[in-house]
Amino acid sequence: MAALRSLAIGAMKTAGHCNIAAASRQHARDATRTITTLGLSQA
Q1: Pick from 16, 17, 37, 42: CA 20 to 30 A from residue 5's CA?
Q2: pLDDT tens, 1-10?
Q3: pLDDT at position 43
Q4: Cα–Cα dist 1/15, whole Å
Q5: ∠ CA(41), CA(8), CA(31), 5° rounding?
Q6: Cβ–Cβ contacts within 10 Å for residue 37, how many?
Q7: Roughly how many angstroms between the first and final C-alpha of the chain, as a whole number?
């Protein structure tokens, strides 16, 4: 679980988010934002 959390934090920092708590809330609200941040295409 800790490894997944670290991966998520690293992805948000790489995407340019400086406030991880706010970014986590935004990504929790909108799954398409998470897909875009990870660089995956939407089906």
Answers
A1: 42
A2: 999 999 989 9
A3: 62
A4: 21
A5: 45
A6: 18
A7: 27
